[in-house]
Design brief:
By secondary structure, this protein is an all-alpha fold. The protein has a domain of 26 residues. Helices cover 80% and strands 0% of the residues. The radius of gyration is 26 Å and the shape is rod-shaped. The model has no long low-confidence stretch (mean pLDDT 85).
Length: 65
């Protein structure tokens, strides 16, 4: 197998696999954090939307009576 200039000649295939796995793990963790933040924002927007709808319905009921 041809070696590349960025390869460490002393690094074994297992060390290379471990390094790759570490990078993939970090990418997954960051992705999950971003997904959690996005989900929290959507959930918060949904909660605020329900509160606003309830408030509007309450005002409509008050003005209708």
């Amino acid at each position: 197998m041809e070696r590349h200039h960025y390869d460490d000649p002393d690094e074994t295939i297992w060390e290379e696999i471990a390094n790759t796995a570490t990078v993939l793990w970090a990418v997954c963790v960051v992705g999950l954090e971003l997904l959690a933040k996005w989900g929290a924002k959507k959930l918060e927007a949904n909660v605020w939307g329900k509160r606003l709808a309830a408030r509007r319905a309450e005002k409509k009921n008050e003005s209708g009576t």
